[in-house]
Each structure stands twice: as C-alpha cells, then as structure tokens.
Design goal:
seven-stranded mixed β-sheet, about 40% helix, 11 helices, Rossmann fold, about 15% strand, alpha/beta, single chain, about 260 residues
Length: about 260
C-alpha cells in the first residue's frame, strides 16, 4: 500500500484498542483484523490517547449516521475512504443500500474480512475519479460520511467530489471531519501519520470552503462530546480532556455537516 493507504492502520488500531477495553464503541471486527494482521505501528501513532480519540470520533460518526438513516429510510449510504472500518457492521444497513469506497488495494484487503450482500457493496476506486458513482444506484437521497479523509484531498478535489455527488442525488446529508490550516501546517512535523510516511495534508478554516452547487454548510458538531470523555477515569480523563477536547483541539480539528435539499 502507498503511504496514504497505510494511514488506515492508525484508526483501525484505535478502534480495536478501545473496543477491547470496553470504551466508546463495540468493534469486534476491528479487534479480529488487528489481531490477525499484526500491523506494526510505533511512536505517536500507537498512543493510547490517540486511540481514544479515534474511537470517540468513530462513535460520533456512527451516532450521526444512525439518526440520518432513521430519517431517510430510502437513502443510499456512502462511506468514502472506508479503510478497514466495520461501520457497516456497527451501524447495520437497516435495509439501506450501503457503499464502502476506497482505493483498489484497500478494497482487496477488505474483501478478506467483509462479504458483499444485497444491501452492502464495496467499490474500488480513487475517490477523486468520480466515475465510481456510476456503480451506485440512483436514489433521491444519499447519506455521506467522510471520516479521516478530507485532510488528504485539496479543496479543489473535495469540491469536484461534492459537485459529482450533487449531480447524482437530489438530497444529500454529509458529515466530514477536517484539519484546520494550522493543523495542516503542524502536521508536516508532528503528526502520527508521519510514522507511515504521509507529509502532504490539507486544512480549512471556513466550512463554506467545501460548498458548491446546492450543497451548503449546515452546522458544526462537537468532535469530542463530554459523554465519551466521562468514560475515562482519573488522570487519563484529565489528560485526554485537555489534549483532545480543549480549546487547543478546536484549533486543530473540526467536524462539519453539509446538506443539499
């Protein structure tokens, strides 16, 4: 895998770690894959605090997705940059058509652990080549999640992707986490993704930067809700709350919801 693809090891480890500890989310599939593959991580990428962050971030995306799926029972669910995430198992398809999209090498790896069904399909493509949308049944609505993806795409690439989504669907609900421009600058030297060879990342400060066509910024979400911080105890909770959920954190990471309606 190339260096960007290898970044999937970091959230996979985080989800396996917190699941095994009984924190934030139940992800037996992540535990299974991590145990079987024996990936090698070192340095900051194997920090327990980063693992907590990855676990909470995934739980926040899961809960948002469940709400959107409940409100749009006929929508297609599209997980862009799925990596080895088992969100389709944690959330369940609930009779929605669910599509996981990632690079060819990643999807080939996924197929060792995930099985396609009538409701679940994996699409192998560079998400920037929007021809992959032709593999998705045209529906009125789509629910799109992009977790840990936007920082590897330029604003122009994101906007091109958004325009293609808008051409394919009448209604769109999208949740995306982003780096700030400050975080992107700092990431060249002090980011766990450097441990797997990634040095080029992107950030935005204005959520309107991704707006195009009829897709508009709806609202900002809390990246680290207090309910999850409270699952930690003592010194761990204190350190995590200040490193990943304090005012400094908001200077680094943001979580934005967009809609086309």
């Amino acid at each position: 895998m190339n260096s960007v693809n290898k970044t999937l090891y970091i959230p996979l480890y985080g989800k396996a770690y917190v699941s095994k500890k009984g924190l934030f989310l139940d992800d037996k599939k992540a535990e299974e894959i991590w145990e079987a593959e024996g990936f090698s991580l070192s340095g900051k990428s194997k920090s327990k605090y980063l693992a907590y962050y990855m676990g909470i971030r995934s739980a926040v995306f899961d809960e948002w997705l469940k709400i959107q799926m409940e409100g749009a029972p006929d929508a297609a669910v599209i997980h862009i940059g799925c990596g080895m995430d088992s969100r389709n198992i944690r959330v369940g398809t609930k009779n929605h058509k669910w599509y996981d999209v990632d690079f060819f090498e990643v999807i080939e790896e996924r197929k060792r652990y995930f099985v396609e069904t009538d409701d679940y399909q994996m699409i192998a493509s560079d998400v920037r080549d929007c021809k992959w949308l032709s593999a998705i049944e045209k529906k009125n609505s789509a629910i799109v999640v992009m977790e840990g993806v936007s920082m590897y795409l330029s604003v122009e690439e994101i906007k091109n992707l958004v325009e293609s989504l808008c051409s394919h669907f009448e209604n769109i609900m999208m949740l995306v986490d982003t780096y700030t421009s400050f975080a992107a600058k700092m990431s060249k030297r002090r980011n766990p993704i450097n441990d797997v060879g990634v040095t080029q990342v992107y950030g935005i400060d204005n959520p309107q930067a991704y707006q195009t066509g009829k897709l508009t910024f709806e609202k900002e979400h809390t990246m680290i809700p207090k309910i999850y911080i409270d699952e930690l105890k003592g010194l761990e909770r204190f350190i995590f709350a200040h490193l990943y959920a304090g005012s400094f954190s908001k200077k680094m990471y943001r979580l934005f919801e967009y809609k086309k309606k």
